[in-house]
């Protein structure tokens, strides 16, 4: 190994160790200080030596991260495939600048920068906050949720993945359900009612708007009783096609097109079980799509071991008959905090191959390990 390369490797490792050392300290709310002889101390021994300015910084900054990786086997069209895959390695930091003003930066080391935004709470309570930057749009019940809290290894339903820009719509491309824009949101009635209005480019992450239109995404949540959350959302906007799509062959690259959606869903959580479901519709130019899903989990004798099941229907284009049914069944074991092991069988009644939409069985076995720290 050349000296310069070796130096870069050592420097990278040193930075990584420094990050995760500080992460451990901050995540556990432990004081940290540097002694005169250059040693780092955590815990009670550091309390008397930590400068006040460092105490102030560490009390306002929190580091978070998670990784999801696993194995996938698939049998479709008479062909077997299998692969180990690294799905996500996310790291993010949130900083409380003042009591009302905060900032967040999130990066996925397996892809790109995901989020960067600042929040400012206008009111003394949680009734009105403004967010500016790049963040998840409020469309659908599932999209704002973290993959670490979702039951399915595939994460979101087919309808949510397609309609919110998570990746299966070629016209928009892979945008991870995020966009650049501004949001106004808040809570009232002791947290029972939450509202959100997003005004976004409609072009996705890390890119400028490609037309003069902005997408408007309203969202409202109501919690009538403990454990139950009712959610409705919508979108009015115009997309700018970055590629052609077999789901919508009349729209060409560079063309602006109508991009409207609406959703309604519910989420219920209790010690006995958890379940959430939703109905969604979308219009992309002349194409109409619709879908629904229900996903849930039940503890098997202990909260750490759960049975997971899901049924998902989505029609990518109702005029072309591009309907797909999807079923998931499996187990997940929470072995430590928010860390878990998952094994699931996934069946789909249709799949794509090149520029063809094929009605045929797609069988899959997925395994995943999730590690998360806060």
Describe this protein's structure.
With 374 residues, this protein is mostly beta strands. It has two domains: 1-50, no CATH class; 60-373, Beta Barrel (Porin). It is 11% helix and 53% strand. The strands form two sheets. A 16-stranded antiparallel beta barrel has the order 3-4-5-6-7-8-9-10-11-13-14-15-16-17-18-19. A hairpin with a 7-residue loop joins β16 and β17. The longest helix has 25 residues, at 3-27. Mean pLDDT is 89; it is low at 1-30 and 36-40.
Radius of gyration: 23 Å
Largest sheet data: 16 strands, antiparallel, barrel
Beta-strand residue fraction: over 45%
Q: What's the end-to-end separation, in Å?
A: 36 Å
Name of the level-1 CATH class of the largest domain:
Mainly Beta
Beta strand count: 19
- Tally of separate helices: 3
Tags for this model:
two-stranded antiparallel ribbon; 19 strands; globular; mainly beta; Porin; 16-stranded antiparallel beta barrel; 374 residues
Detail the topology: elements first, then pairings.
Layout: H1 3-27, E1 32-34, E2 40-42, H2 52-60, E3 61-76, E4 79-96, E5 101-108, E6 113-121, E7 129-136, H3 158-163, E8 178-188, E9 193-200, E10 215-222, E11 228-235, E12 238-240, E13 256-269, E14 274-284, E15 287-299, E16 305-315, E17 323-336, E18 339-353, E19 356-373
Antiparallel strand pairs: 1-2, 3-4, 3-19, 4-5, 5-6, 6-7, 7-8, 8-9, 9-10, 10-11, 11-13, 12-13, 13-14, 14-15, 15-16, 16-17, 17-18, 18-19
């Amino acid at each position: 190994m050349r000296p310069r390369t070796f130096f870069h490797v050592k420097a990278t490792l040193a930075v990584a160790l420094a990050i995760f050392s500080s992460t451990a300290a901050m995540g556990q709310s432990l004081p940290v200080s540097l002694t005169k002889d250059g040693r780092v101390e955590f815990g009670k021994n550091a309390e008397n030596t930590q400068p006040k300015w460092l105490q102030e910084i560490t009390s306002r900054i929190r580091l978070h991260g998670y990784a999801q990786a696993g194995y996938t086997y698939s049998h479709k069209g008479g062909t077997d495939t299998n692969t180990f895959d690294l799905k996500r390695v996310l790291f993010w930091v949130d900083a409380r600048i003042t009591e009302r003003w905060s900032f967040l930066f999130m990066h996925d080391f397996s892809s790109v920068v995901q989020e960067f935004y600042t929040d400012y709470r206008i009111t003394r309570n949680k009734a009105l906050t403004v967010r500016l930057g790049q963040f998840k749009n409020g469309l659908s019940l599932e999209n704002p949720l973290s993959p670490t809290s979702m039951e399915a290894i595939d994460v979101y339903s087919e309808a949510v993945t397609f309609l919110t820009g998570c990746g299966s719509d070629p016209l928009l491309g892979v945008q991870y359900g995020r966009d650049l824009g501004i949001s106004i949101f808040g809570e009232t009635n002791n947290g029972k009612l939450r509202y959100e209005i997003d005004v976004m480019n409609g072009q996705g992450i890390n890119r400028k708007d490609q037309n003069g239109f902005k997408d408007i995404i309203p969202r409202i949540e109501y919690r009538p009783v403990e454990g139950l959350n009712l959610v409705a959302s919508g979108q009015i906007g115009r997309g700018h096609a970055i590629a052609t799509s077999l789901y919508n062959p009349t729209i060409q690259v560079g063309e602006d097109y109508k991009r409207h959606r609406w959703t309604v869903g519910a989420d219920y959580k209790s010690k006995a079980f958890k379940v959430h479901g939703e109905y969604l519709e979308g219009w992309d130019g002349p194409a109409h799509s619709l879908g629904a899903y229900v996903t849930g989990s039940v503890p098997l004798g202990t909260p750490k071991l759960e049975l997971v099941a899901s049924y998902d229907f989505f029609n990518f284009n109702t005029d072309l008959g591009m309907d797909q049914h999807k079923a998931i069944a499996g187990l997940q074991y929470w072995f430590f905090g928010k860390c878990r092991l998952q094994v699931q069988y996934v069946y789909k009644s249709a799949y794509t191959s090149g520029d063809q939409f094929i009605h045929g069985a797609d069988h899959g076995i997925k395994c995943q390990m999730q590690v998360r720290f806060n």
